[in-house]
DNA sequence: TTTTGAGTTGTTCGA
DNA sequence: GTCGAACAACTCAAA
């Protein structure tokens, strides 16, 4: 039996249940279908497309090493493309690993039925989550909305399945479908702006494994404290690799277990902050699955009436890292340049957008969606709703980040700000996170002219905080 | 059914 | 400078 293996967000050969099952049954035709219109309101943004281009190239190389190749197609309709590929190749089965975006779930359900009606076997698998979103439930069978009990229940189900081995060999079909060039997917921008991405990342399986190994060796031990320091590079940076499935969470889980056992953490590696972060990824998918409206609508309905402002100039200043708050600007510039932002700084910049500027969280979510290489509908939605206070397990209304204190606390030497906001690099650390409070002589010595070489603060944080508290008070039913 | 305890990531104020 | 309390009320999960 020849099987079409439909790659989606599982761009790897190892721990890939769809591929393994197909390879056991006979020849396989690996395909990737680029159909952005099927992602509804959330087609991949520019940074994600760049990553996807690189990752598909790496996947094709890996498949060729295994005696196979990746067949690409572009279109509007996955079903039509799959039926056409089946006709061309004589394949009698289609298999894939599941995606969990609401739009995709609905389409996949229809598609699977249609494939079966067309006489093709159609099966799907789980490659991207430790547990299916419906496996974890409260005692009454409903969805969980608080992280800690969710994760406790998830762990109580036992360790997730071990990762699957790579298929030993991939038999080629009697004839390959007509080739489509990767360039025809037009994933790369017409204007060359991807230098910063290229310098920061190595997309693909090999880069993912290297990243994981480096992280476990160097940063796993002090992770629970150092992960909050954007100046230290102590996070795993696995998010884009996980998003595209170049490595699976089961593999990360097992590698962490092996590392933990080898380093004397026989009991407590499961409770480690790093494993808990995998738990947050699971929780994000759980929430997206059970509350499919949340990419657009606040989970807490009363927030639909929040008096957000409209201020295109302020939004643009935030997007470009020109708010006048150094830690905020550093984060947004890191994002713009590398397609990624440190998690602590994501919280700071998000809090600034929604609480200091009173701009809608959706505007921030959209910007992140366009600029992140790890843009993931589940995680992005959870993060922004958390920051805005309208999501599950949301921050209490009075938790408003002070960008000066956050900067001092988590970038104490100022290395992070100096790197991303070089026009402030000569300022003494004392004033780095609040340049407007430095004396004229200090500013002059550092070559800083507020309002000229670096913006004055867009808003006064203390006043903005009061305004946010007042706005939140209007929500009381 | 009712009750109870708890809830990723913070800041400010006053003693 | 340090420390603890207050900051709303709500929702969820489990007993």
Characterization of the model:
The protein has 21 helices and 5 strands. It is mainly alpha-helical and 477 residues long. The protein folds into 3 domains: 3-126, 3-Layer(aba) Sandwich (Rossmann fold); 128-162 and 205-290, Alpha Horseshoe (Serine Threonine Protein Phosphatase 5, Tetratricopeptide repeat), CATH 1.25.40.80; 301-473, DNA Cyclobutane Dipyrimidine Photolyase, subunit A, domain 3 (Orthogonal Bundle). The chain has a 5-stranded parallel beta sheet with strand order 3-2-1-4-5, with helices on both faces. Helix 5 packs across helix 11 (273-290). It binds a DNA duplex (15 and 15 nucleotides) through residues 138-140, 144-149, 228, 276, 280, 300, 343-344, 347, 351, 386, 392-402, 405-406, 465, 469, 472-473, 476.
Question: Secondary-structure blueprint of this entry?
Answer:
Layout: E1 3-7, H1 17-25, E2 28-34, H2 46-65, E3 71-74, H3 78-89, E4 93-97, H4 102-117, E5 121-125, H5 147-156, H6 195-200, H7 205-218, H8 223-226, H9 239-243, H10 249-262, H11 273-290, H12 312-320, H13 326-338, H14 343-356, H15 361-371, H16 377-388, H17 403-410, H18 415-420, H19 429-432, H20 440-445, H21 461-473
Helix pairs in contact: 5-11, 11-16, 13-14, 14-16, 15-16
The structure holds a DNA duplex (15 and 15 nucleotides).
């Amino acid at each position: 039996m020849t099987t079409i293996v439909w790659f989606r967000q599982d761009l790897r050969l190892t721990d890939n249940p769809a591929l393994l099952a197909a390879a056991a049954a006979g020849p396989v035709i690996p395909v990737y279908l680029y159909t952005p219109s099927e992602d509804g309101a959330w087609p991949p943004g520019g940074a994600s497309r760049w990553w996807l281009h690189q990752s598909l190239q790496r996947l094709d190389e890996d498949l060729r090493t295994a005696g196979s190749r990746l067949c690409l197609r572009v279109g509007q309709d996955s079903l039509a493309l799959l039926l056409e590929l089946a006709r061309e190749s004589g394949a009698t089965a289609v298999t894939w690993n599941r995606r969990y975006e609401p739009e995709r779930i609905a389409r996949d359900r229809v598609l699977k039925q249609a494939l079966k009606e067309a006489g093709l076997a159609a099966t799907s698998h789980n490659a991207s989550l430790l547990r299916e979103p419906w496996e974890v439930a409260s005692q009454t069978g409903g969805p969980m909305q608080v992280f800690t009990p969710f994760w406790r229940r998830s762990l109580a189900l036992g360790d997730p399945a071990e990762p699957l081995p790579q298929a030993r060999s991939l038999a080629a079909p009697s004839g390959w479908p007509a080739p489509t060039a990767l360039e025809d997917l037009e994933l790369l921008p017409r204007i060359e702006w991807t230098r910063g991405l290229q310098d920061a990342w190595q997309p693909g399986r090999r880069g993912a494994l290297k990243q994981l190994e480096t992280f476990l060796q160097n940063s796993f031990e002090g992770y629970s404290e150092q992960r909050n320091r954007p100046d230290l590079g102590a996070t795993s940076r696995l998010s884009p690799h996980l998003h595209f499935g170049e490595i699976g969470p089961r593999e990360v889980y097992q590698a962490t277990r092996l590392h933990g056992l080898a380093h004397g953490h026989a009991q407590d590696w499961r409770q480690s902050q790093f494993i808990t972060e995998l738990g947050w990824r699971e929780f994000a998918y759980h929430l997206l699955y059970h509350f499919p409206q949340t990419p657009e609508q606040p989970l807490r309905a009363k927030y639909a009436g929040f008096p957000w402002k409209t201020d295109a100039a302020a939004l643009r200043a935030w997007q470009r890292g020109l708010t006048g708050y150094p830690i905020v600007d550093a984060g947004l510039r890191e994002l713009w340049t590398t397609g990624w932002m440190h998690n602590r700084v994501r919280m700071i910049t998000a809090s600034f957008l929604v609480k200091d500027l009173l701009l809608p969280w959706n505007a921030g979510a959209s910007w992140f969606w366009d600029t992140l290489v790890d843009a993931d509908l589940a995680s992005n939605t959870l993060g922004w709703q958390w920051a805005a206070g309208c999501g599950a397990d949301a921050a209490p209304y009075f938790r408003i980040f002070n960008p000066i204190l956050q900067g001092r606390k988590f970038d104490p030497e100022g290395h992070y700000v100096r790197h991303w906001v070089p026009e402030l690099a000569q300022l003494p650390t004392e004033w780095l996170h609040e340049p407007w409070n430095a004396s004229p002589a200090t500013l002059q010595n550092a070559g800083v002219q507020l309002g000229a070489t670096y913006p004055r603060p867009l808003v006064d944080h203390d006043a903005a905080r009061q305004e946010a508290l007042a706005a939140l008070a209007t929500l009381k039913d």
